[in-house]
Amino acid sequence: MTDPILDTLRTLILAAILATLLHAGARRGLDGTPGWRAIVGGFALLLCASALGTLRGLPVPLPGEGARLEPLLDLIERVVGLLGGACLLAWGLWRWLPVVAATRANQRELLRLKERYRAISATTSDLNIDAEVLPDGSLRVDWISGSLHSASGYTPDDIMTVEQWQRIVLPEDLPLLESHLAAAGAGEGRRTELRARTRDGRVLWLALATCPRREPDSPALWLTTAVRDISARKQAEADTLRSLEENRTLLRELRHRVKNNLQVITGLVELAKSRIKDADPEVVAACQDLQARIGCMALVHGQLYADGATGRVDFGRYARDLAAQTAKLHGREATRFDLELDEVPLTLDAAVPCGLALNELLTNAFRHARPGGPGRIALTVRARGGELLVRVSDDGPGAPAEARDPASQGLRLLRNLVTLQLRGSVEFSPGPGATATMRLPLERDADAAPLPSPRP
Fold first, then answer.
1. What is the CATH number of the domain that holds 324?
2. CATH code at position 156
3. Are residues 333 and 455 in the same domain?
4. Reduced to 3 states, what is the DSSP secondary structure of residue 219?
5. pLDDT tens digits for range 216-262
């Protein structure tokens, strides 16, 4: 005889185990796991056998023909219930235990990867935050790590919520923080640089980089944010900009001094020319040529000084100013100019030889323009198809043969500047109405500005 109380207790325990298995399977989605249904079915058969044994152990005789069913009930209890339940449970465990072992191995690997990720994050960023976006839009921080606490003076509990971040970020940078959070909450990655105040009142520059992600089989949105202290970089940038501004100021002052010194030299040449006895025409012409060449270089530095930090000379505007300066030097202010000038930015290394070459062309035009009248000079500066074209034309009778002698100083200087230094070409069309044309190759630098390519 079995004890009815123990049989009842066994049945209740099996019922509790079965209920727990059914609840766990529904909550964790184990119904599709290999062997799980066999385990539940085995416990169900064991429960049925135990319940049947409990009923048979009660001190209540079976009425009528029920006594003859006693062997059949005993067979069902022992074979179907106990033996069938045990076999089904064993087969289910045989299939399910490898899955459990693999799951635990995956969990250990996941934990190892998480620890590796946290270690890498701690070495590459000053602060790392992993947070879940809750349905109401707030954030639940899952973990936070890094070394920014020592620099800012805040503990992890001081920077766990959005409200705490809003208190430490400078008021003028709060719109940046709000925009960053709004974009991240919408599932967009965002990088932002803003300023925050430390516990002792210092200001830190922080770079925030947030990457949104979603876990597999979960609608929740997670935000992983890396925070770096970029105060040193910002300070270095400010120092660089300040140094650059100082260098620009010194460079402008240098250009101003060069321009003034060239003007002083031009004045000294003019003083020496005025003291020449008998006014030798060749000496006067040589002094004028020297003044013109010095003046065209001074004009380059003057425009560089006036343009400030651009470091370039607009050769179209420079050609217009040089034409007026050369006309004044030769006493031909009444000359009429037909100007077709493009805006062509040149560096100092290109502008000086180009200006000297243009000065030679303008000097020849003024010397051989229409005598006895104001005359007309056409000046063209164009940049087309990778080429700088400079053309000077006059309405005079043309230069005499000695002026077109290749051995003359002016032509030798012109050809050396154009062909050797600027790697271009110059052509002359004799008068009446003489025309000189320079063609110079243009190249583009890193700022996409066209430049003649000077010879090293």
1. 3.30.565.10
2. 3.30.450.20
3. yes
4. coil
5. 767 788 888 888 889 989 999 999 898 888 877 777 777 777 777 77
Nearest CA to 143 out of 114, 164, 169, 165 is that of: 114
Number of domains in the chain: 4
E strands along 243-319, which residues?
Answer: 313-314
342 and 447 together in one domain: yes
Q: Are residues 337 and 447 in the same domain?
A: yes
Q: What is the distance between the alpha carbons of residues 141 and 362, in angstroms, rounded to a whole number?
A: 76
Domain coverage including residue 165: 125-229
Let me know: does 380 contact 391? Beta carbons within 8 Å. Answer: yes
**Cβ atoms < 10 Å from Cβ of 87:** 13
Cα gap 225→395, rounded to integer Å:
75
Residue pair 324/366 in contact (Cβ under 8 Å)? The answer is: no
Q: Which of 306, 340, 349, 324 is nearest to 449 (CA)?
A: 349
pLDDT digits 0-9 by tens, 345-388: 888 788 888 888 888 888 888 876 666 556 788 899 998 878 89
Give the model's confidence band at 398: pLDDT under 50 very low, under 70 low, under 90 confident, else very high. low
pLDDT above 70 (res 69): no
- Does 171 share its domain with 276? no
Round to whole Å and give the CA distance between 390 and 351. Answer: 13
Which tokens in the block code for residue 244?
A: 């650059």
The last residue of a domain, from among 272, 290, 310: 310
* 449 and 316 in a common domain: yes
- The rounded distance, in Å, linking the Cα atoms of 286 and 149 is 76
Last residue of a domain, one of 67, 87, 119: 119
> Is residue 432 reached through a cis peptide bond, with omega within 30 degrees of 0 on the bond before it?
yes
CB 139 within 8 A of CB 131: yes
Identify the pLDDT of residue 453.
41
Statement to judge: residues 262 and 169 lie in one domain: no
